[in-house]
Structure formats: structure tokens, C-alpha cells
Design brief:
Number of helices: 10
Structural class: alpha+beta
CATH class of the largest domain: Mainly Beta
CATH superfamily of the largest domain: Regulatory protein AraC
Strand content: 15-25%
Distance between the termini: 13 Å
Shape: globular
Radius of gyration: 20 Å
Order of helices and strands: EEEEEEEEEHEHHEHHHHHHH
Largest sheet: 6 strands, antiparallel
Strand order of the largest sheet: 2-9-4-7-10-11
């Protein structure tokens, strides 16, 4: 099921930062994406959220920041032992570039914010003491407009960009080298992405970028935070999630397309990362709201 492109809210023409309360039997959305960044604070109800290739249970207080064009959905479905209750949430949407100040993110002092937005491309959930302060700011946004709301947003982004209480949600956005990574590692990552269905060996990557195997492995881990096998496997799982969600390819076809040695190996790796088998993942993503 391909995500639906959601157009800009009509309120965006009047407000640089849109802030709305969602109430009802569901969140009023489907599997979709949009150009705005989004902050969602769940106040009541809700059963699960889908962000990229991740499906997680949610509870009141759940606070998530999503970057531009990240596929997502919020659902309110009853389980066998817990009936669905009415939902209530605050949803904030904004463009990463403020009107008239499109270059503000390029200033050197904005590096922490740029890194926050890079993390938000995978979705980030806010936890700990940071969530308490962030929740208060989001709630305050409901009662102000114009520049006062923009100022609160900037306070919130500053808080999040300097917090250790954030955790990435999804790996469906293909992992990338960290900012400032070596050009050699960038070259290696591009090669991996282009040859994902094929066997990929550390020695071959090292030779391509002109380094010894050990030196390359150390540099790769420093620049990506992963070993080469971890990085390749994460890339393959991410691509598999995309194909399961958006195509009708069989599990065997997806296994081959993503470079797994066999469907059985794919099933094991997928279960380890997603905590369910591929067909269960496909059915959960395809469930109607």
C-alpha cells in the first residue's frame, strides 16, 4: 500500500506553524506523508503508530517529531481485551524553512537543529524529563498565534536538539554516513546502496576506496556507527519493509531483490529486527483505520 501524499493544510496559508487538536473515534488519517515536519502529542486514546518501517503501541503522553515526507499513520483499534476509546491529540505542523528565511538552517549556530531534523527523517520519540517540558510547550502553542507560536516552536526545537532523551523510531529511511563523514565512506555507502541485491564484502569495499581492510572497517564504524555487515543488513531490511508495504511482490521475490541468501535467512533477519514475520508486517501496514 503506497502512502498517500497529504497536501498542505489550508491553515498553513495563515499560520507559519499550524497547531490543531484532533478528537474523535480515530486520528482522521491514513498511511500518508506530507512536506511539513510534524509533532504529535497523544493526550488520550490511540492504539499504535506506524512510522516508516516501525509499528509501535502508543499510550497517552506519546510525543513524536517527524521530518518532511516521512510516511506515518496513527490508529485507534480495539484489541481482544481493551476496547478502543476516543482519541485526543495535539498536532503541530511546520515547514523546516521559515517563510522569508529559507537559509536560516545553513548558519553555523544551527548545526544542532540540522542534526535534529536529520534524526527526524527516521522519526524521533521524546522521553524522560525532556518530554515533560516539551509537552508543556506544545500545549501552550494552542493558545497563541503568529510569531508567538513560532517563538514557542523555536524553543521546542532548541530543547529537543540539545536533549539526550530522544530515540529514533524507524530505519526505513536508509542509513546515511554521519555529517562530516569521510568522502571514502560516502563512496562506500553509495556503492552498497547501488549493489544491495549482490554479495557485498568488506575487502571489496576497502579496495574500492583505497584502504586496507582493517583501516576501512575502523573508519566505517566511526563514520556510520555500524559495522559493514550491520549497515548492509539494516539497508536490506529497510528496503524489504518498503517493498512489503508498497508492492505485491512475494516474500521470495523481496528476499532476492534485497540480497538475502535465502527466503529462510530473510525471514529470520526480518523477525529479529521487526519482531514479526514479513507477511504479518505487510498485513499490519495494510490494515484499514
Amino acid at each position: 500500500m503506497k502512502p498517500i501524499v497529504e497536501m498542505l493544510s489550508p491553515l498553513a496559508a495563515a499560520e507559519p506553524v499550524v497547531c490543531e487538536v484532533v478528537r474523535g473515534q480515530d486520528f482522521g488519517c491514513v498511511w500518508h506523508y506530507h512536506p511539513e515536519c510534524e509533532i504529535t502529542l497523544v493526550l488520550k486514546g490511540g492504539s499504535e503508530r506506524l512510522v516508516g518501517n516501525n509499528i509501535s503501541r502508543i499510550e497517552p503522553g506519546d510525543l513524536v517529531l517527524l521530518g518532511s515526507n516521512v510516511p506515518h499513520d496513527y490508529r485507534n483499534q480495539p484489541s481482544a481485551d481493551v476496547p478502543a476509546t476516543e482519541v485526543e491529540a495535539i498536532v503541530v505542523q511546520f515547514m523546516p524553512q521559515l517563510p522569508g528565511h529559507e537559509d536560516w538552517m545553513q548558519r553555523s549556530t544551527m548545526i544542532p537543529i540540522r542534526r535534529l531534523f536529520q534524526r527526524a527523517d527516521q522519526g524521533v520519540v521524546v522521553t524522560g524529563i525532556t518530554r515533560l517540558t516539551a509537552t508543556r510547550i506544545v500545549q501552550e502553542m494552542l493558545h497563541v498565534h503568529g510569531m508567538k507560536r513560532v517563538i514557542l516552536l523555536l524553543q521546542l526545537l532548541d530543547l529537543l536538539s540539545n536533549s539526550e532523551d530522544l530515540r529514533e523510531i524507524s530505519s526505513s529511511v536508509l542509513p546515511q554516513p554521519r555529517p562530516g563523514a569521510s568522502d571514502r565512506i560516502t563512496m562506500a555507502c553509495e556503492f552498497i546502496a547501488a549493489h544491495l541485491p549482490e554479495p557485498i564484502y568488506v575487502a571489496d569495499l576497502a579496495a574500492i576506496v583505497g584502504l586496507g581492510k582493517s583501516a576501512f572497517s575502523r573508519l566505517f564504524k566511526k563514520c556510520t556507527g555500524r559495522t559493514v555487515p550491520q549497515y548492509v543488513n539494516e539497508l536490506r531490511i529497510a528496503r524489504a519493509c518498503l517493498l512489503l508495504a508498497e508492492t505485491d511482490l512475494t516474500v521470495s521475490q523481496i528476499s532476492m531483490d534485497c540480497g538475502f541468501v535465502s527466503p529462510a535467512h530473510f525471514q529470520r533477519q526480518f523477525r529479529e529486527h521487526q519482531h514479526c514475520v514479513p507477511l504479518v508486517y505487510r498485513s499490519r501496514v495494510a490494515q484499514p483505520v
